[in-house]
Amino acid sequence: xxxxxxxxxxxxxxxxxxxxxxxxxxxxxxxxxxxxxxxxxxxxxxxxxxxxxxxxxxxxxxxxxxxxxxxxxxxxxxxxxxxxxxxxxxxxxxxxxxxxxxxxxxxxxxxxxxxxxxxxxxxxxxxxxxxxxxxxxxxxxxxxxxxxxxxxxxxxxxxxxxxxxxxxxxxxxxxxxxxxxxxxxxxxxxxxxxxxxxxxxxxxxxxxxxxxxxxxxxxxxxxxxxxxxxxxxxxxxxxxxxxxxxxxxxxxxxxxxxxxxxxxxxxxxxxxxxxxxxxxxxxxxxxxxxxxxxxxxxxxxxxxxxxxxxxxxxxxxxxxxxxxxxxxxxxxxxxxxxxxxxxxxxxxxxxxxxxxxxxxxxxxxxxxxxxxxxxxxxxxxxxxxxxxxxxxxxxxxxxxxxxxxxxxxxxxxxxxxxxxxxxxxxxxxxxxxxxxxxxxxxxxxxxxxxxxxxxxxxxxxxx
Amino acid sequence: xxxxxxxxxxxxxxxxxxxxxxxxxxxxxxxxxxxxxxxxxxxxxxxxxxxxxxxxxxxxxxxxxxxxxxxxxxxxxxxxxxxxxxxxxxxxxxxxxxxxxxxxxxxxxxxxxxxxxxxxxxxxxxxxxxxxxxxxxxxxxxxxxxxxxxxxxxxxxxxxxxxxxxxxxxxxxxxxxxxxxxxxxxxxxxxxxxxxxxxxxxxxxxxxxxxxxxxxxxxxxxxxxxxxxxxxxxxxxxxxxxxxxxxxxxxxxxxxxxxxxxxxxxxxxxxxxxxxxxxxxxxxxxxxxxxxxxxxxxxxxxxxxxxxxxxxxxxxxxxxxxxxxxxxxxxxxxxxxxxxxxxxxxxxxxxxxxxxxxxxxxxxxxxxxxxxxxxxxxxxxxxxxxxxxxxxxxxxxxxxxxxxxxxxxxxxxxxxxxxxxxxxxxxxxxxxxxxxxxxxxxxxxxxxxxxxxxxxxxxxxxx
Lengths: 463, 463
Prior knowledge:
Chains A, B: It comes from Alteribacter lacisalsi. Chains A, B: Belongs to the NtaA/SnaA/DszA monooxygenase family. Chains A, B: Keywords: Flavoprotein, FMN, Monooxygenase, Oxidoreductase. Chains A, B: It holds the Pfam family Bac_luciferase. 2 copies of one chain form a homodimer. Helix content of chain A is 39%, strand content 13%. Chain A is an alpha/beta fold. In chain A, the strands form 4 sheets. In chain A, strands 1-2-3-4-9-10-11-14 form an 8-stranded parallel beta barrel, surrounded by 4 helices. In chain A, helix 7 packs across helix 8, helix 10 crosses helix 12 and helix 13 crosses helix 14. The radius of gyration of chain A is 22 Å and the shape is globular. At the A-B interface, helix 1, helix 2, helix 3, helix 4 and strand 6 of A face helix 1, helix 2, helix 3, helix 4 and strand 6 of B.
């Protein structure tokens, strides 16, 4: 059997303790150095040398203030606040690496597509084609109110805007400049053949953008498109647009169903299944021996902030978890959102009684998905099982401690995965992010992708 | 006499031939490599080693389409199109340097202050306090229409919005987080003292921003503030807010009057004159001998694009210059904007008959201001004269060819300026941009700056 190659992104954010509230207090954790550029350049070098395909940045534009109706717990424990803009360290990280991809979360709700399109084209140029864009439609309420909205837009309305937003971007990225528009012929003194630069003449419900795009075609033109739609509408959106889908489910059973549904939707869209990579999530706490791994886990768990975890969980679910007592079983919680959050973890281990405390500590060790405590072999076994049974193509790997978790992973797990033929050798890397995900020569979106409609812009518009 | 120290910014843009249309065709010009990150990191290293204080990035968000009512001339000649986002290469340039400052042009008209404030705080952190912001209120009509406006806002309305925009930024940068809010005490497990993080509760005419800011205080908090207001309203704005004022006048007489007026306005605002640096513009074409310099000038002039220059000039003045014949004297042009543009150059050399062609070629060799063709001594003489007579503190130095012009300047002119005591020695540099401009320890805005009103935010708001 030819084994599937596993794709690996480090999962990170420009804040301390991304998904492990409180663990910044661990003596070895350095994630609070996120304001320091050398922290990011060192990390980029380590990830590239260590076999990662990319680094995937989450982002929020607000604070977690659902718990206790206040941001106090989040601020006190440094839970995703303070938080910096994820785009700005990328050129430095690209400068010290050659192949590492950069997936960045950016919302379509709060920035104009004409500006974001230029921003991502610029980065795709500067990184020589290593940019991915995680399309999100919303952030926290606390973000929306700071940007002039009274609260978040309705879910379906956000996706409606996102559809039009992408249409504008596709037109700018794929249609506005023909491939050979830029000539730079010093003899004929022609920089650009102006007849090959087209207005996009977009006039939609939400945006009016005559064009043209301001940047010439970048190596990938459209960045690698990530999406993480979970709702039916979100899955529909992802199956139409996304090249990489990120799903943070905690059990193989749950993720397997999701992936099956998603791949079927992709086919229905007329796209090839192999043009979409699905990334699960898996938090490894790895040691050379089981005892070493378990000891690491215990120490990390001691540094988890209970309140910080609840601040995070309350923000995710929209439920103020301060109303529940720590040791109460969560089986009979009535709120839909909370029940579904509990259900997910309950299913992960049906024999365990989930209390609020247990849930908080599980989340606190990076456990938005499964937490695998064990030897390199055990972690590799589990990853292999997820790939084979849940049909994921790879993982976003969160850290519990940074950069230590990533260092452990590159030093201990990557060699094991290579030995099993699940990761390519270090020198089998291409230049662009899309090629590293889909294969040599596949720098641009395939023709079955909806963006291709706008390749023909020149024939449909008068410039 | 203690001579004034001269401040130096390289004047650049993320496009080819920033202010020298057509000169990208010169065999030695490399400015068309602007998509390539190593072009920017090499330039940053050269500028820092060569004695520059900073690099100042212009920007536009549209194309120059006034000339002939079309963007054809601009696109064909690569006149500031294609053009990338200036913020994104900065972290890489900061990674390879230690002291070089980065001034970036960003408009207050098209991006939300809550987002821009985070973006600039992030950069100030990552560069260790080396960010400046050139506040502009508008771009071209061709930009406005792509961002959902039917055209540019009225001049005074733009400044009204800018005033409120800055108020929001000051509140976020200076008032939201107290200096010692971030504790990061691993023992007490307190990341941030939440009682020292304040909502800004801004409710204005154009923006509603409850806050708090998302980033902790960066080295400079507020980036070094640049502005280039020329109109009475613009000067008023600059005298109130700007720490560095950029004026692109072509003669000492014109700039002298401007600087005198500006400094008087600064005093009226209750600010200290020495808290504002004025940057003129001066394009040096330098050779070891006069003949060498003159030969360089002649060669560069041959590569200027006449139509490209007119595209640029038409965009700046808003007048379609295709209506004038190339060799007609411009003395009797009736349009106000054009007459004032011509007047400016006429005053620069009253014995010269300015035709459209001559004006185009003057602009084409980087001549938005004076063009000094000569030896290092002659260029230094002229700079000294500007400082003494026009009372400027420094210059934004455009290139005619990049990076060659900057290399000539650092190799030939900088040593001459140092010999005269007009530039500090290479090792007399501080860490932050503001200290390099205003002196050791002056990392933050002085207390006479209007932003200081918002330092007291905590006493005025309930968090």
